Amino acid sequence: MKNCEYQQIDPRGLSTPSSTQPCTEKNVQRPRRKWEVFPGRNRFYCDGRIILARQSGILPLTLGLIIVTSGLFFAFDCPFLVTHLTVCIPVIGGVLFVFVVTSLLQTSFTDPGILPRTLPDEAADIEKQIDTSGSSTYHPPPRTKEILINQQVVKLKYCFTCKMFRPPRTSHCSMCDNCVERFDHHCPWVGNCVGKRNYRFFYSFIVSLSFHTSFIFGCVVTHLTLRMYAHSQKNTNALSLTSPLTVVELVICFFSIWSILGLSGFHTYLVAFNLTTNEDIKGSWSSKRGAEDSGNPYTYDNIFTNCCATLCGPMPPRSVCMAKPPRQSKLLLSYEMYLSSPFVELGSQLWAHEWRSESRLYHIRL
């Protein structure tokens, strides 16, 4: 067993022979961002600050349903409820509406945790095997590598698209064509992947949407009940005086509230046990897979701690929007060094990871 310190090996900081002097140019161009080199299928706006999936056509539908339903509520239900109940109803509805829309936009436009791919020459250097005789022979990298996480074996898979070993809980999204850290799922309703950097926004969105939909549904039912009771005293038909749009609003809320509440409950379960949708669907830590693979190595065995680690932890930095270093910086690794620790390529900089996640040490099995 071998421990690997978390360190950054910067090729630009390595000493170069005195015979080779770096050439200086007068016109220095801005280094290209990593998303400009390998954008995958994502679309980047505002210098990479806004990220969207290529197929994001359902996002306007999601936003439109929220705005239309809320607009009908404020236009047809709030005036009657303010008159007969309290003025707090539109205030509560407005706060929930703002929170829902804000969480949705944050989920849709935030980098989910995309890991940039390696450059072709760097991937070739890692995949080369330098034997002791000095002859260079090419061998494809192994498909898996084993590490120990809390005394449990976890297999790291090699991504042949991104040319790197995926860190723990990382998966390659077929829709976005990128590896995403702590990949949960690709959600077409928000037009983005849900991963390490935007899961907290996604969870806030579905929970707040559950409250917002339940609140509107309850207010609409209360509105119709009070109106029917008032007109029953006058022997008039209350439904004839009710706007058809109120009925449309009631139908939308009725058919959407069950799926939203179920989704919120499912993700609350995942947060409580520090799981992802991808892991739950595959049954990665199910006891049915055998005693050796049973148990979630990422859980803290405490629901409160799991919730804090998933939703309240520090926001990790964006890897895909780092500047790409100059092409002249190269680093050739020996095969022994390649086997000694897992490597994650980030442009021309090589990060040797011990994979510290949530204050845990991940050890490599050699």
Automatic annotation (TrEMBL):
What stretches pass through the bilayer?
Answer: 58-76, 82-105, 201-226, 246-272
Q: Say if the entry is tagged with keyword Protease.
A: no
Q: Which GO terms describe its molecular function?
A: protein-cysteine S-palmitoyltransferase activity
EC?
Answer: 2.3.1.225
Give the reactions, separated by semicolons, that this protein catalyses: L-cysteinyl-[protein] + hexadecanoyl-CoA = S-hexadecanoyl-L-cysteinyl-[protein] + CoA
Q: Which GO terms describe its cellular component?
A: endoplasmic reticulum; Golgi apparatus; membrane
Q: List the membrane topology term(s).
A: Multi-pass membrane protein
UniProt keyword list: Acyltransferase, Membrane, Transferase, Transmembrane, Transmembrane helix
Which processes are annotated in GO (biological process)?
A: protein targeting to membrane
Protein name per Swiss-Prot or TrEMBL: Palmitoyltransferase
Query: Which species expresses this protein natively?
Result: Hucho hucho (huchen)
Cite the source lineage.
Eukaryota, Metazoa, Chordata, Craniata, Vertebrata
